[in-house]
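User: Can you help me understand a structure? I only have the sequence.
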Amino acid sequence: MSANPAAAAPPKAKSKKMLIIGVVVALLVIAGGGAAWFILNSRNHAEDEEGAEARPHAPAAPKVAPTFLPIDNMVVNLADTGGERFAQIGLTLELADAKTAEQVKLYLPSIRSAILMLVSQRSSEELLGREGKEKLATDIRREVSKPLGYTVAKPRKRPASQEAEDEEEAPRANKPAADTNPVRQVLFSSFIIQ
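Assistant: Let's start by predicting it. Here is the structure, written out as tokens:
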């Protein structure tokens, strides 16, 4: 009984072919799955980017919620000719924390006096515009910050031609340094001029 080498060869060749076909099929399945994942992932990523561009980016939430300190309404005569105009102003201070609110309360009589002096130096025409109100809010913030030991920089006045150039370069401008002043901003709760 001799073994026929020709008869044994076909099963080995057949098993090699099956192994190669199996490996090729497995590679095609893996490659197809990887391609499908890549396409779906890139679509989702593109939709996320489009959605992010359509939605404005929400500012990062502050670590500590601010404290708001309302100040009683004030009635002030304005610097108009004849002294016939007056303003009734309600303010709320946005402060970093409750500790700062307690410090501000200690100085409230002198702060109110300083605010009354600031407003009484303005004319109704000056206070009717947004720019005048913003300047007043900055000046009030400066007065509230003084007793706490902080300063608020005065805006520099520039020629109109320089302001136009600055507006064009605004996107390239560097961000200012972080403001450590615990008096974050002055908010107007009411503003009536008669």
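Now, to help you interpret it: The mean pLDDT is 79. Strands lie at 67-77, 86-95, 183-193. Let me know which part you'd like to focus on.
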